[in-house]
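README: folding subset

This subset contains proteins for which both the sequence and a predicted structure token string are available. Records are stored as plain text. Below is the entry for AsnC family transcriptional regulator (152 residues), shown exactly as it appears on disk.
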Amino acid sequence: MQIDAVDQQIIALLVADARASYADIGTRVSLSAPAVKRRVDRLRSAGVIRGFTAVVDPAAVGWTTEAFVELFCAGRTTPGQLSAATRRHPEVVGAYTVSGEADALVHLRAADISHLEAALERLRAEPFVTSTRSTIVLSRLVESPGVGPATG
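--- output ---
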């Protein structure tokens, strides 16, 4: 699928505010609301836009403790096995295969240190995990939800 500069602007505007109306977006990209809707529909059907979601402040729901955990795995653990295992843990907010010593990097979020420790122990109990190395987040410095800044 060909994505032009207007599509990129529309995507960036939706990432910044998924509730923006087609008319508001149209004003920013110099298109009518129906033209923006057609473009969004095309981007959705092509799988470029996979959905719309609410971004919840973790502090507002009491999950203020977070850590990044390097997983070291036995044998030839596959990305599919890692994905299936990490999806079983509600505290996992992200999981990635990585280069370097570790096999994967997991982002955990919990209510407090005790909750984080329990989540980490459950993650360590996965049959292929041989060891972990954790880093607790002290403060968030930069957080970006999307693919780039909105322009226009």
